[in-house]
Every structure is written in C-alpha cells, then in structure tokens.
Amino acid sequence: MNVLAEWTALACEELGIDPAKVDRDQILDLTKEVAHGVTRPAAPLTAYLLGLAQGAGTAPEEAVERLTALARNWGQATTETLTDR
C-alpha cells in the first residue's frame, strides 16, 4: 500500500468516513487545478470548503466539477468581477 492510500484509509477511519465514498483522485485533481490556477494556499482551503458543504448537505452533485472549472477560468472570472465593480 502506498503512503497516500494508507493515509486516506487511516484518516477515513479516524473520521468515521467510508473510504469507498472518497474519490481521492478527483479531490487531488481539484486541488491541483486550484493550486496552479488560483494560488497554492487556495488548494487546501478549497478542499476544506468542499468538505464543509458536503457535510452540511449543501454541495451540489457536480461541486467538484464546478470548482475545477472555476479554478481553470480564474483569470477570466477575476477580470469580470473586477470590471463589474
């Protein structure tokens, strides 16, 4: 077992999460997009916010895809936001 798989399994056990419900690769892809498209510190923050939303039952089904798209289009999104003010 590799370190990441072992960490995921142990962290899930510690938190009472079914590891089968964790798409580790999808979360890693999301945080990679955020780290490169927005800023590195936004990656763990985004994962945490996603977890909060999912835990509260407010994250839409496609939340990861929407956040990934937002990170990929960050330059355009911030330009539009700054222009609107």
Walk me through this protein's architecture.
- It contains 5 helices and no strands.
- The longest helix is centred in the middle third of the chain and has 15 residues.
- The model has no long low-confidence stretch (mean pLDDT about 90).
Helix content: over 70%
Radius of gyration: 15 Å
Mind describing the biggest β-sheet?
A: none
- Strand tally is 0
Show unreliable segments: none
The coarse silhouette is: globular
In angstroms, what separates the terminal alpha carbons? 51 Å
Summed over residues and divided by their number, the pLDDT gives a mean of: 91
The arrangement of helices and strands along the chain is: HHHHH
Number of discrete helical segments = 5
Structural class by helix and strand composition: mainly alpha
**Proportion of β residues?**
under 5%
Topology of helices and strands:
Layout: H1 3-15, H2 24-37, H3 42-56, H4 63-72, H5 74-84
Helix pairs in contact: 2-3, 2-4
Features:
74% helix, single chain, globular
State the gist of this model.
By secondary structure, the chain is mainly α. The protein is built from five helices and no strands. It is globular and about 45 Å long.
